[in-house]
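Please check this.
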Amino acid sequence: MLDPKLLRENPEKIRNMLEARAVKFPLDELISLDKERRELIIKTDELRKKRNEVSLEISRKKKAGQDASSLIGQMQTVSDDLRKLEETQIKIEDNFTKLSLTLPNMVHESVPLGKDDATNIEIKKWGNIPTFDFEIKDHIDLTQNLDLVDLERAAKVSGARFYFLKNQLVRLNQALLQFALDFLTEKNYTPIQTPFLINRNAMEGAIIAQDFEEVIYKIEGEDLYLIGTSEHAVASMHSDEIIDGKKLPLRYAGISTCFRKEAGAHGRDQKGIFRVHQFEKVEQFVFTRPEDSWNEHEKMLAIAEEFYQKIEIPYRIMLLSSGDLGKISAKTYDLEAWMAGQKSYREIVSCSNCLDFQARRLKIRFRDRTDEQPQYLHSLNSTLVATTRTMVAIIENFQTKDGHITVPKVLQKYVGSNLI
């Protein structure tokens, strides 16, 4: 949610943001609703004041034994008018809130302008793309040949895009999670395992819910949704709180199973474990002071890079353009890993600064002293590891001539072997 002052004082800045994002939004309607609700606040306050004055005058006349019938009639008229205004005010406030919750975040000045991912900018590359002296396979064929994944039986019990992990791939999955937690703990992140279900208020505080209706799973008959990432739960856990500023930044290593419908993908992505409905993930999430958030953003990206350097996965860093940017983010870097079997870079990390956008929606503020006015903090999030996609990169990049997979050195102690 944006600062309402910006809507009133500089709507053109918001209009420029919408144009940069190539997002259609009824901004004029929102401005009109804001003006109307503020006018209604003034009118209802005036009527409440008048009602109180008439009430006092009625009381004074009755005590003096004077006729107050005309004032009582006036009181009834004022009360009726106030009730109607309050009903209108509630509707206008509700419409304003619903519409304002769909307004995207502002875009940072360093974000390149563009309508889609074709205008994203490559910032850097790391690592050498592996070369092979044999005909390589993608992760689908490798995992089938090594009996590491069972897609057919998963489809039988759960449907498409689900899977059974088997044998050493189970250990590799757990190895990535444990290494990620150990890695972030050394960086002074607090490990936190989140609920897999959150309510609508929490979900709407973390994301623009209407954009995710076809992506998230809803529990029928319950005010509960399966999380798409631990970010949603961690962002909401401090809602309606005033945090002691001396404790900032709060750095969380959120671990969770994630659930996504992943509708719309085609081709080879429909097979294997690259694009699935359920996977494990460790997420960086940080609450920080506004003045520190951009430095924190770069730190989080550096941490993600270090993690993949340790796993020895070649990657590139992409700065997303305004048209490819998520609506809650002001700036996002993607880390794309090289997938040898696909002969392309694919996104496995998204690192975003949301400024005070989530904090305003969730009413999360901070102050250093109790006599200070609280202010909204900034929130940032970044994938550290989504296990299925990272395993795809490992499987394809570390395949051997005889059809096996070398385990990256940093993970061997967790897997208990150097070869799968």
Q: What stands out?
A: The chain has two domains: 4-100, 117-415.
